[in-house]
Amino acid sequence: MYDVRWHAAGTGAARALEVHAADHLGVPARAVTSGRLCPRCGSSAHGRPWLRAGGAALHVSLSRSGPHLVTAVADGPVGVDVESVAAVARGWDAALVLSAGETADDDLARARAWSRKEAVLKRRGTGLATPMTEVSLDREQWHDLAAPAGHVAAVSWAGPAAPAP
To answer: Which InterPro entries does its entry note (predicted)?
Structure first.
């Protein structure tokens, strides 16, 4: 099961993850530590976020688009993504996003495809190092999330099915 939370504009990503996880686990925020780790180069300046609380690891993901920040915490791998519909429309290239048999006929459908696939790739732990065309959404677990106007968001998780948020 996963838990998703939107944060106020200006909230730092690390702080948002720490507070979200502390609330989720029912522990004080000071008991939570977090950071980033790039699986390719080992850098702590970028890469997948990690979090520990009371000595235990918790799976986390975050995404930001403009002033909007969303985090997800879960007992198993999780990925979350938020995208601006206009930004996806400006950079859209179906050959870089859609796998065989997939279609996206308007800007909203294109942004949803992008957001869903990026959430899946974050959950897998590869991010955009894996081409989006290798993700077939009909074989993945994901839910669209309610998102701010002009944006779309999705979450992907590993494990048992979760109810729609």
So the answer is: 4-PPantetheinyl_Trfase_dom, 4-PPantetheinyl_Trfase_dom_sf
Q: Do the domain assignments include residue 63?
A: yes
Model confidence band, residue 163 (pLDDT cutoffs 50, 70, 90) = very low
Structural domain including 122 reads 2-157
Contact 61, 71 (CB under 8 A): yes
Would you call 25 exposed, middle or buried from its count of C-beta atoms within 10 A (0-12, 13-18, 19+)? middle
Residue 98 burial (C-beta neighbours within 10 Å; 0-12, 13-18, 19+): buried
Q: What total number of domains does the chain contain?
A: 1
Q: pTM to 2 decimals?
A: 0.90
Q: How far apart are CA 148 and CA 134, in angstroms?
A: 28
pLDDT given for residue 46 in this prediction: 86
- pLDDT one-digit tens code per residue, 82-113: 999 999 999 999 999 999 999 999 999 999 99
Single-letter code of the amino acid located at 112: R
In a domain, 162, yes or no: no
Tell me whether residue 80 is exposed, middle or buried, using C-beta atoms within 10 angstroms of its C-beta: 0 to 12, 13 to 18, 19 or more: buried
- The per-residue pLDDT of the chain, averaged, comes to 91
* Within-domain flag for 163: no
Asked whether residue 164 is assigned to any structural domain, the reply reads no
Nearest Cα neighbor of 51 from 76, 69, 73, 24 is 73
